[in-house]
């Protein structure tokens, strides 16, 4: 059999929590694993828990000066350092030094970045590339291991909408987004789902490093299509809310003519696209400042190559 892709062993892995200081599952898990790492230890992998934005965690805020999960741009990372830089830009440069440099052979193999959402997305894995077959095989493994609980895959690869994440310093970046959970709140069910995903992910890497070959497969993903803002008045203030028929319906098809927003005087604004889309991040609290009510996606099935450990 040919057609299988070789990937280097993934020996250096990091688990990031507190990239956003008010998303509590990742903050709590990193703190648990920093005190006792037996649960995340595997014989063929070195896994480091890491708190990304300790000042934001202390304030229980998303960020201090600017969103850390947008800060890993080439411009920021190559900027000469200095006290006058926004806190998160300084922090991005530090994280890039420890776990990167981004895009270099020295970068960590895999970074899991733990996030929570106020949206009803359930467990979601976020990938940034449709051609990283190592990551696609890993999410296929995790989805099977999590069943019957669902685990969706959001693909953020997009010419305009992709953003420069904290995890992007790794060769294989993986976002975990679990909700619904309010900001600043811990919910045990959300915490446990996140913990299970990390466990399965580390088991996959351990097996891969041990020489297990993973056969070709197919994986369902939701590819980011568009950001949709709230309707606004002439002063730029929000003039409508997510419609009750759309609220909490992440990953369900939104068809042309379906209700999308409800104005303060009770009228309905319908979706007017050409065909069905799959909205997600519906009414995410952190996205009001980003002028985003939800993101639309298209559902696709990706063909994933067989993978095996490359022998160099
Ligand atoms: C709610 C939230 O923070 N979501 C993350 C998604 C991601 O990590 O790609 C963000 O916007 O940075
Ligand atoms: Zn987040």
TrEMBL record:
- Active site annotation, chain numbering: 177 (proton donor/acceptor)
Positions with a binding annotation for substrate:
69-70, 163-167
Which class of enzymes does this protein belong to? hydrolase
Q: What is its main location?
A: cytoplasm
MF terms in GO: aspartoacylase activity; hydrolase activity, acting on ester bonds; metal ion binding
User: From what superkingdom does this record's organism come?
Assistant: Eukaryota
Give the cofactor binding note.
Binds 1 zinc ion per subunit.
List each copy of the Succinylglutamate desuccinylase/Aspartoacylase catalytic domain by range. 10-205
Binding, N-acetyl-L-aspartate: 62, 177, 287
> Which Pfam families does this UniProt record tie to the protein?
AstE_AspA_cat, AstE_AspA_hybrid
Q: Could you say which cofactors this protein requires?
A: Zn(2+)
Q: Cellular location of this protein?
A: Cytoplasm; Nucleus
Q: Where is the AstE/AspA barrel-sandwich hybrid domain?
A: 218-297
Q: Which UniProt keywords apply?
A: Cytoplasm, Hydrolase, Metal-binding, Nucleus, Zinc
Q: Which residues bind Zn(2+)?
A: 20, 23, 115
The parts of the chain that form a coiled coil are none
Q: What is its EC number?
A: 3.5.1.15
One GO cellular-component annotation of the UniProt record comes to:
cytosol
Instruction: Tell me its family.
Output: Belongs to the AspA/AstE family. Aspartoacylase subfamily.
Protein's name in the database? Aspartoacylase
Query: Origin organism of this chain?
Result: Silurus meridionalis
């Amino acid at each position: 059999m040919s057609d299988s892709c070789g990937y280097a062993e993934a020996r250096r892995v990091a688990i990031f929590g507190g990239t956003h200081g008010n998303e509590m599952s990742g903050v709590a898990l990193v703190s648990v694993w920093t005190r006792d790492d037996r649960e995340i230890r595997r014989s063929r992998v070195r896994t480091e828990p890491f708190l990304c934005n300790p000042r934001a965690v202390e304030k229980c805020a998303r960020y201090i000066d600017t969103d850390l999960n947008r800060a890993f741009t080439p411009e920021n990372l190559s900027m000469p350092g200095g006290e006058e830089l926004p806190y998160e830009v300084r922090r991005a440069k530090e994280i890039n030094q420890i776990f990167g440099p981004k895009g270099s052979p020295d970068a960590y193999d895999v970074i899991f970045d733990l996030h929570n959402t106020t949206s009803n997305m359930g467990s979601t894995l976020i990938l940034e590339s449709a051609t990283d077959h190592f990551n696609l095989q890993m999410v296929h493994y995790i989805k099977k291991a999590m069943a019957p609980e669902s685990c969706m895959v959001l693909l953020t690869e997009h010419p305009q909408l992709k953003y420069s994440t904290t995890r992007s310093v790794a060769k294989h970046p993986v976002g975990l987004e679990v909700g619904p959970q309010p900001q600043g709140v811990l919910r045990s069910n959300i915490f446990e789902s996140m913990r299970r995903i990390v466990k399965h992910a580390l088991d996959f890497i351990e097996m891969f490093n041990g020489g297990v070959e993973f056969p070709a497969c197919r994986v369902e993903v939701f590819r980011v299509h568009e950001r949709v803002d709230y309707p606004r008045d002439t002063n730029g203030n929000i003039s409508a809310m997510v419609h009750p028929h759309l609220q909490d319906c992440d990953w369900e098809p939104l068809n042309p003519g379906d209700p999308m927003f409800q104005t303060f005087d009770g009228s309905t604004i319908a979706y007017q696209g050409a065909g069905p889309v799959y909205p997600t991040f519906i009414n995410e609290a952190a996205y009001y400042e980003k002028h985003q009510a939800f993101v639309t996606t298209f559902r696709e099935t990706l063909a994933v190559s067989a993978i095996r450990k490359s022998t160099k």
